[in-house]
Please model this.
Amino acid sequence: GLLRASSGDLVGGKADLDRAVELDPSSAGARIRRGEFLLDRGDAAAAAQDLDLALELGPAFAGALGPRAR
Model:
């Protein structure tokens, strides 16, 4: 998702990130990546939901705190 988005395909990148979360809703990593994407696109509220849930799912993923602090 992020690779696709970074190549300019934002719609496809978002779709890939959504699909990753759909396939494994309990993946903290997928939530973090989608949250970072959403933050970069200015959707802070949706990003916060993903990043907060990532922390609940995997507290060891403290990397989610960096993007969440923005």
